[in-house]
Request: fold
Amino acid sequence: MNANLVVNRVIQNIDTNLNTIQKMVNIAANSGADLVVFPEAALTGLINTDVPAHDLSLGQKIPGPITQLLSKLTKKLNIWLAIGVLEYDRGRIYDSAVLISSNGEIALKYRRIQSQWHGENADSSIYCQGKEVTKVETPFGTFAFLLCGDLFDDEISNRVRILKPDLLLLPIARCFKDGSYDQKRFDKEEKQEYISRVKLIGVTTLITNYLADKDLNGGAFGGAMVISSDGTVIDCFPLGESGILSVNL
Reply:
């Protein structure tokens, strides 16, 4: 299986972001990708202002117009697509991810369980979390999702270890407080933490982060990694650049 991990640049204009996503899907498919993986909240960025009047407007229904558009694209291009989306559901917002199959169906939907994607004082009746970690059969083995901080929660990550999927998809949204794209700092302070957590779970993991400037809620420094079940970094994509990491698994 050829997996393409996309590091897309996210700005405040959702239509522009959607166009970027579609272009990068086409590039990945034309290069032979079987699976294309986008970051957490790839359409909007993780804009968690904790102001419902603002944040609810960013949420997308699942299924809804965006997933329907992406479903048509996966069917046309005969690829599988994973993407993080802020989800709107009956007056609530979730930090979610979907896996869309090559026949255009939503094969798996996941809602982030760990709550730190929003502020600790956010209205819990509006800013909500999921409860389940599940896996799905694909032509390439079984896949499961976690989102960003879920990886560092012992109880949540242990569920994946017990579930034993063949592949873990981990879209993230990560930045430094100063908004920098500091590769040396990441390698020194954070890279080993991701490796250690993946090794603890024991499942090969695909990690990708979007790229955004600091004025988009602190920004995001990009980067992508594929880490094997034994903690070996199979390949990685540098911070501070948009593009695609292609890996044969």
Observations:
- The longest helix spans residues 14-30.
- The chain has one domain: 2-248.
